[in-house]
Amino acid sequence: MDNEFSSKFTDLEMEKSLYLFNTGENYDSYLSLGSIKMDDGFRFTVWAPHAKEVYVVGDFNQWQEEAMMEKVLETGTWTIVIPEAREGDHYKYKIVQNNDEIAYKIDPYAKAFEVRPKDASVVKALPKKKWSDGSWMANRKRKPVYERPLNIYEVHMGSWKHNEDGSWYTIRQLQEELIPYVKQMGYTHIEFLPLMEHPLDASWGYQTTGFYALSSKFGTMEAFQDFVEAAHKANIGVIMDWVPGHFNRNAYGLAYFDGTPQFEYEDENRANNNRWGTLNFDLKKAEIHSFLISNALYWIDQFHLDGLRVDAVSNMIYLDYDIGEWIPNEDGTNHNRQGVAFIQKMNKILFERHPDLLVMAEESTAWKKVTHPVHEGGLGFNYKWNMGWMNDTLRFFEMDPIERKNYFALITFSFMYTFNENFVLPISHDEVVHGKKSLMDKMPGDRYNQFAGLRTLETYKMMHPGKKLQFMGSEYGQFLEWRFDEGLEWSNLEDPYNQHQLEFTKQLNEFYKNEKALWEIDHHEDGLKILDASNNEETTLFFLRKGKKARDFLVVLCNFVPVERQGVRVGVPFKGQYEEVWNTEYEAFGGTWTKGQGILKTDTIAAHGYDQSVEVILPALSVVVLKPKRVYGVPKT
């Protein structure tokens, strides 16, 4: 929608816009609410249906009360045009609440805020950005994301790097350094933890106050638009964590905005989020639908984001996900039907507007059809984080290798359900913080075996069906767990082990992108064939990954214990020659193998359901990958 459309609203258009807002069908409500640039200053419009009086105070009127028009057209909104208002002015709404108390509130639609700890809203017009990422945006539409490589580098913007004086990097600095780094490392996308305005760094952005504003600590709207554009021109997508389920309860924010439960549920048990100390959005309310769906589209349309990772979906779809009291449905079930309906509506609208989006659910339960279309009874996401795989895999790799044979199902069970949803395999920020230790430090053994284990884990993840996500710092094996208030330990790269790990990650990412078998039919049973998942005694796992063409396949051989296995026979689909294309124990990666196993010729010895097989060596604690070099009997299609 034209950014300037809002400044040219006629009274009739404004009436229609607010009517649609009240009915939950205004999906661009930020073009009519908030501070809007007009020919004669700025118009301020705020939804406060039960307020007795509303004033706007700010720099433009020396913070003196200026009464807003009462409840425009009975829509529950208040408005005023202030000719003296200029971009950059600070302002708040003074609200005489339903109980006669006075509260000074932010603008829920503010597009900028004062630098924290100050909290005033800032008058801001939508930038008139002339985008130059048309090639990337057009390319998104050419091929379904399911048939593309997707390897995400997860970043907390405030702690990727700090300046020497300890200050945060600006978005401009990140544009200069983060984008080239991600491109050099071979990732396909950057995913940021939430970037919206939030008062507490320790919340990492997950307790939002200003949903329409980039956090003042990071920079301006224009800077972030330029960042995304630069990323796209470097062939890197940008995703952002988005938190539509709950919000920060600070008094100056959305909490009990007009003195009544306005943004939150009326039932206190449903409104209070005890687990996180926040307030839950009332997902049955039409105006909340307009507010939240507009917010998603705001970040997508105004910043050209390629997708959203939707946080805490479980909290939105269950009545009893939180700790504390809850009231079941009439039939005794625990599903939040209003939350489910909102999510389905949201996803339907998002994909109608942008069919090529990534909309990923962070959903930690066994809810069925999270990534199925709404018309099939699904929630309508196109990806879900595979939390089960993550938990089982980390538990397996953290244990003493001697014990792994007794818990081998932890590493094989995921194959039973991997095609039930479109999964992303995440080892995210949540797994390397709060005393959980860094990913490298989770690995048992001496330093050599820790890195050997890390290489094995990362390669197993890359070979397993599903798209990929890695949190910053894990790519080079940072020893200390993540600390949100400090930059990463880049000094670790003075250590040869970390240098090797960084090179390993870079080459693994490129290997993934170059092998169609790892992503072309990633979400279909035809893309995987298990050869042997029952050898718990030796703790080895063999499987094939396959692309659309019969020749596009890889033979994946995992050895999860620090014991070398010689003379291992592996069944292969076709007679001929195979070559070792990946071995986590190569010297360049920090291992001990100075050369690979060369060309492997098949023998007419049956194994794993095939008439042909090859004999290989599996290094201790490693993954070896074979690829057909010259084989016979391969179908042409």
CATH-defined superfamily of the domain at 5-122: Immunoglobulins
Helix/strand-derived category reads alpha/beta
| Span of the ends, CA to CA | 44 Å
Largest sheet: 8 strands, parallel, barrel
What's the number of extended β-strand segments? 28
* General shape: elongated
Helix content: 10-25%
- Rg is 27 Å
Average pLDDT: 95
The residue ranges in which pLDDT falls below 50 over 5 or more consecutive positions are 1-7
CATH architecture of the domain at 5-122: Sandwich
Strand order in space, largest sheet: 8-9-12-16-17-18-19-20
The fraction of residues assigned to DSSP E strands is 15-25%
CATH class of the domain at 5-122: Mainly Beta
CATH topology of the domain at 5-122: Immunoglobulin-like
Put simply, the count of helices is 13
Task: List strands and helices in order, with pairings.
Layout: H1 11-22, E1 34-38, E2 41-47, E3 53-58, E4 77-82, E5 90-96, E6 102-105, E7 121-122, H2 134-140, E8 151-155, H3 171-185, E9 189-192, E10 196-197, E11 210-214, H4 221-233, E12 237-242, E13 246-247, H5 268-271, E14 272-273, E15 278-280, H6 286-303, E16 307-310, H7 313-317, H8 337-353, E17 358-361, E18 383-385, H9 387-398, H10 409-412, E19 423-427, H11 439-442, H12 447-463, E20 467-471, H13 496-514, E21 528-535, E22 540-546, E23 553-559, E24 565-572, E25 575-583, E26 599-601, E27 612-618, E28 622-632
Parallel strand pairs: 8-9, 8-20, 9-12, 12-16, 16-17, 17-18, 18-19, 19-20
Antiparallel strand pairs: 1-2, 2-4, 3-5, 5-6, 5-7, 10-11, 13-15, 14-15, 21-22, 22-23, 23-28, 24-27, 25-26, 25-28
Helix pairs in contact: 3-4, 6-8, 12-13
